[in-house]
Description:
This protein is of the alpha+beta class. It has helices spanning about 10-25, 25-35, 70-75, 105-115; strands at about 45, 50-55, 60, 65-70, 95, 100. Helix content is about 30%, strand content about 10%. Bound molecules: zinc ion (3 copies).
Amino acid sequence: MSGIGINPGSKAGLEAVARMLASLCEICEYASEHGSWPTDHRGTHCKGCHRSWTGLAQSHCTVCHRHFGSDAAGDAHWPGKGSECQDPEGYRRYETRSGVIFGGIDPKQMEAMRQSPRKPPSHSAETPRTETP
Ligand SMILES: [Zn+2]
Ligand SMILES: [Zn+2]
Ligand SMILES: [Zn+2]
């Protein structure tokens, strides 16, 4: 019964791991190793700003890393070659937990839709259980 377990004294090793995690996002790490996103990762990921998103209608600028709720908003933010990225004019700006989104559907509305119960509430929670021993 010896040689099993982690040496708690290897502080240097822990620090190296922490540094690695901070500099490299695990999704990018997986992608560089396997050539594809992790199997449990749904959607798209930006290797520049490490933002993930799942909406197919959403678009992302890999230059300025602004994020858009629609392709149209993405097109509007960049007037054309030789121009600089800018906030898309005439599109709404949404502050979300994962950052700012321009255009598209209101993320709060999306969240409400997502959180709406998929199945009707069961009655079992209201009916007291009558169990006979
Ligand atoms: Zn990443
Ligand atoms: Zn841009
Ligand atoms: Zn980005």
